[in-house]
Amino acid sequence: MAYSELRPESLENYDGTDGIRLGDLKELNPDTLEFKKSPTILIVRFSLSIAKHQYFTFIL
Asked: What is the pLDDT of residues 3-26, one digit of tens each?
């Protein structure tokens, strides 16, 4: 969160039923759960955004 400029509210919704998923990480190898390259892209879906638009950020 420190380098990607994400707010804690964007990690999940207000009642905890929806949040960031593994599919939101675009460079993640699902077999080993390792990043293919670093930094990787994290997609924040419109349902988690306060402004109700989808955006992306980079994480290490």
From this structure: 777 777 778 877 888 888 888 888
